[in-house]
Design goal:
With 255 residues, the chain is of the alpha/beta class. It has nine helices and 14 strands. The strands form four sheets. The protein has a six-stranded parallel sheet, with helices on both faces. A four-stranded parallel sheet has the order 6-7-8-11, covered by helices on one side. Strands 2-3 form a two-stranded antiparallel ribbon. The longest helix is centred in the middle third of the chain and has 13 residues.
């Protein structure tokens, strides 16, 4: 069966900070020209969709803002559907994507993303107390990644802060982003998973998560790829970078 759509991870796969991975800009154009639909999927929670789009365009990629599906997008939809009034542990930029606080209501939840400046005692203690106020108050983890790739190496993700709040309050977090099926189903938007492929650098969040809903998975050796991490099930293909993944898809479709 040919591949009709590709879900493409951003940070670590398409680019690392402000540098595209090798030949990624040209490869993306080649993938589009081959007739494969694309959607850009990311667990990035520090930047709003608008900021992500502007950054990608600035470093040479051609895409529409509507083609980006982030864990922030999924979390916004969840907050709105559940009619929550959260306390947010988010960057100021990411906070812009969410509804304004309703000051007429008590806070009934805590939303956690990647927010290095918010992970201090006072703000974590505020989150702790919001969760303790009512037993039904929700802890919402936009994702609980262990680490992510920066230009200076790996950096701590939000996962340990989510786990700390779970431990201190007895809550179990509702996890929104990759590798949760909720995220992939939203990104697929009704497409048949067996006709879609995920391209990413995270063995668990990208590859295992996508394959668990019936997609194929291409793991690339860029970003936070670690050679001693062996996902189960193994990826459909293990390749050096995004450009090689595009060549693999085109070759498969032309076979």
């Amino acid at each position: 069966m040919s591949i009709q759509a590709a879900l493409i991870d951003l940070s670590g796969t398409l680019h690392v900070e402000d540098d595209p991975t090798p030949n990624a800009v040209q490869a993306l154009s080649k993938l589009r020209d081959s007739g494969v639909a694309v959607k850009f999927v990311t667990n990035t929670t520090k930047d709003s969709k608008k900021t992500l789009h502007e950054r990608l365009c600035k470093i040479g990629f051609q895409l529409e803002q509507s083609e980006i599906y982030s864990s922030l997008s999924a979390a916004v939809a969840y907050v709105e559907s559940e009619k929550l009034n959260p306390y947010y542990l988010l960057s100021d930029d990411a906070r812009q994507d969410f509804p304004p606080e309703d000051t007429r209501r008590h806070m009934d939840s805590v939303v956690v993303g990647l927010a290095p400046k918010a992970f201090n005692y006072d703000q974590l203690n505020k989150a702790f107390n919001v969760l303790l106020e009512q037993k039904n108050n929700q802890l919402v983890a936009i994702h609980q990644g262990k680490y992510y790739k920066r230009s200076d190496g790996l950096a701590l993700g939000p996962g340990c802060f989510v786990k700390g709040l779970e431990f201190a309050t007895g809550c179990t977090a509702k996890v929104i982003g990759k590798p949760n099926p909720y995220f992939f189903e939203g990104a697929l938007a009704g497409r048949d998973p067996s006709t879609c492929v995920m391209i990413g650098d995270d063995a668990n969040d990208d590859i295992v998560g996508a394959m668990s809903v019936g997609m194929q998975g291409i793991l690339v050796k860029t970003g936070k790829y670690l050679p001693d991490v062996f996902p189960s099930p193994p990826p459909t293909a293990l390749l050096d970078n995004f450009a090689e993944a595009v060549d693999w898809i085109i070759k498969k479709n032309n076979a």
